[in-house]
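Exercise 3.2. Students should predict the tertiary structure of the chain below and write it as structure tokens, then compare their answer with the key that follows.

Predict this chain's 3D structure.
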Amino acid sequence: MEPDRQVGLVEAILLLENEPVELGALQRISGLQREEVLRALDFLREEYRKDFHGFELVEIGGGFSLSPKQPLWVDLRERYGRRYESRLSRAAMETLSIIAYSQPITRQEIESMRGVSADGMIKLLAERQLIREVGKKEAPGRPVQYGTTKEFLKLFRLASIADLPKMDELDQERFEPEEGTQ
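Answer key:
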């Protein structure tokens, strides 16, 4: 298959899929070899960087997706952003931040940092599929530990947790559990 057709095929797959598509899935769906898919992705990434395009190729949680360019969201949010725009309260965002930067983390550790009960916020964030149970802590009672999900990565347009903005020293101190909660 000629290179132009390969690029078009990969682009069409990305437009038709609702979720980010992993490299292996792109290979299976397209019938292309890994190198061909990677070349097509590189071409699309460069092509969509041109100012007149409304999309960009983004890597989210290990998959690839075509997404509106960030500056356009101001204009598009009213109609297309409702899915993610049911805004999180300040308390929910604070709880989500604590989980994102400290995962895996227990409810007790979250409460220690916030100074208030986290049950309601944990339930809300889990219902919105932004966090999930990721294991149990090796401690008395084996408390549940929480971490973020692929939905979290999609919402904040992150390829992985490593892409979270770096914290300064004051923020880092705030995200350390108090003595006795570990």
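Discussion points: The mean pLDDT is 86. The chain has two domains: 3-79, 87-174.
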